[in-house]
Structures are given as structure tokens and as C-alpha cells.
């Protein structure tokens, strides 16, 4: 062992130097060189830092630098996150996305263009004018639809979600608010009143007939019975015709 090499190292180093830091790492750790000014120091880490990717070899595990436009990468040729100003697409960092794709500034990736999608039109509404469905001949009817898929930045914009058109209806008079209900209530009251009137009349008629009947019965009880007139022929005395 070189006099400057020590085996009693800390921080995951298997061997180290006072001047160069770690020279080799313990098993499963990655060796990476860190620059401090003009000097490079070897360190041993459990995973590679940003901008590096890990490679494993029988004798040593190393952290190698990603490409200049990669912030993190899986291998040198496969980037997983790009640096500012670049967009990730299929493991590569691009300044401009290919045709048919658009740049997503939120994820910094090239994504598919999404066009707007709308549902089917609803049936036409009743013909109205100023919120009413009566009292006019020409009005308007409308139909609507909903947006089921909003577009991305470069997608086709959404169409109109409502349409209106002129319409013609059979003109009819509008009933005043509450008039129909009021008419029904008045008819019901009138019907009840007529029924009550007939009932009162029937009751008066029955009472009058009962009173007449009772009066006749009382008159029959108070008047004396008439005697029969005597037979005039029986009361006449025989006339003496001898003189």
C-alpha cells in the first residue's frame, strides 16, 4: 500500500488519500469525483447525484456525467429530465418538439396535441320570447352541447356550445300569473255555494211541509166533530086532511 493511501477511511471509502479523498469504495457504493476549485476529490455515494448516472463494474461502481443538456439520465444516451430550455422526448433533450407534438412548459416534455371535443347537440328548447312561451307569434329556440375534452395549447379550439334560431308558434293568450288557479278556486267556491243553496232550499221545503202537516193535525184535534143533520121527512107531523 502506498504510504499516502489509508485503509482506515470514513464516509464509505474502502481506501483513501489525504490529498485525493476516496480512492475506492465499499461494495454497492458509487465512486464519483467532485471538483473543488482546481482540485478533484473522490467520494463514495449510495446513488449518483443529479447530472450523473451509475455504471457497475466488477472492480468498481462509478458515476458518469450525463450529456450537457440532461439534468438527470438513466444512461448517457437516455435522459430522464432535461435542463432549462430543453424538452424531453423519448429520452432525448430537444430545443424544439417534432411535428405533431407540442412543448409542455409545465413538465418540460413533448406531448401529443389534444384537440377539443364536444358532445352531441341537445334537442331544441320550446319557442320563447322574453322568457315567455305565449303571447307572441315569432320567437327563438335554443340548443346546447357540452365540452367533453378541452384542447391543449396547439389543439383545435372548442366550437360554440349554444345555438339559437327563429321559430313560429300558434299565437295564444297568456294567462295572468295565478289567474288559472284563481278561476279554479272561484269555480270550486261557486259550486260549493250552489250546493249549499240547494241544500238550504231542500231543508226549508221539508221544514215547511212538516209544519203544515203538524198544523193540520192540531186543527183536527181542536175542532168538534160535526153532527149529522136530522132527516126532514122524519120530523114532519102528519097533516090532518079531514077538515
How would you summarize what this structure contains?
Helices cover 20% and strands 33% of the residues. It has two helices and 17 strands.
List the helices and strands and how they pair.
Elements: E1 5-6, E2 13-17, E3 21-25, E4 30-36, E5 39-45, E6 52-56, E7 61-65, E8 70-75, E9 78-82, E10 87-89, E11 92-94, E12 101-104, E13 109-112, E14 117-118, E15 138-144, E16 147-149, E17 162-168, H1 179-222, H2 232-235
Antiparallel strand pairs: 1-2, 2-3, 4-5, 6-7, 8-9, 10-11, 12-13, 14-16, 15-17
Number of strands: 17
Shape: elongated
Helix/strand order, N-terminal first: EEEEEEEEEEEEEEEEEHH
The gyration radius over C-alpha positions equals 58 Å
Largest sheet data: 3 strands, antiparallel
Helical content band:
10-25%
Pick out the low-confidence regions: 232-237
Output mean pLDDT.
81
Termini separation (Å)?
Answer: 212 Å
Description of the structure:
Residues 175-219 have a biased composition (Basic and acidic residues). It is found in: Secreted. One of its GO terms (molecular function) is signaling receptor binding. There is one protein chain. Helix content is 20%, strand content 33%. The protein has 243 residues and is an alpha+beta fold.
Amino acid at each position: 500500500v502506498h504510504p499516502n493511501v489509508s485503509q482506515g477511511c470514513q464516509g464509505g471509502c474502502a481506501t483513501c488519500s489525504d490529498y485525493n479523498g476516496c480512492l475506492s469504495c465499499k461494495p454497492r457504493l458509487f465512486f464519483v469525483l467532485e471538483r473543488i476549485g482546481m482540485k478533484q476529490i473522490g467520494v463514495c455515494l449510495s446513488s449518483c447525484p443529479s447530472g450523473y448516472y451509475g455504471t457497475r463494474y466488477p472492480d468498481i461502481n462509478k458515476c458518469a456525467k450525463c450529456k450537457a443538456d440532461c439534468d438527470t439520465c438513466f444512461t448517457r444516451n437516455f435522459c430522464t429530465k432535461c435542463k432549462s430550455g430543453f424538452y424531453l422526448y423519448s429520452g432525448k433533450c430537444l430545443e424544439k418538439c417534432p411535428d405533431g407534438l407540442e412543448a409542455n412548459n409545465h413538465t418540460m416534455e413533448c406531448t401529443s396535441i389534444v384537440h377539443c371535443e364536444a358532445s352531441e347537440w341537445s334537442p331544441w328548447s320550446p319557442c320563447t320570447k322574453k322568457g315567455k312561451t305565449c303571447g307572441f307569434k315569432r320567437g327563438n329556440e335554443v340548443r346546447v352541447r357540452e365540452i367533453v375534452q378541452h384542447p391543449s395549447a396547439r389543439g383545435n379550439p372548442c366550437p360554440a356550445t349554444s345555438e339559437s334560431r327563429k321559430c313560429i308558434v300558434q299565437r295564444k293568450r297568456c294567462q295572468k300569473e295565478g289567474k288559472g288557479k284563481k278561476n279554479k278556486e272561484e269555480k270550486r267556491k261557486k259550486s260549493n255555494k250552489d250546493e249549499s243553496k240547494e241544500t238550504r232550499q231542500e231543508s226549508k221545503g221539508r221544514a215547511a211541509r212538516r209544519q203544515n202537516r203538524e198544523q193540520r193535525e192540531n186543527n183536527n184535534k181542536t175542532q168538534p166533530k160535526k153532527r149529522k143533520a136530522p132527516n126532514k121527512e122524519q120530523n114532519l107531523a102528519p097533516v090532518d086532511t079531514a077538515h
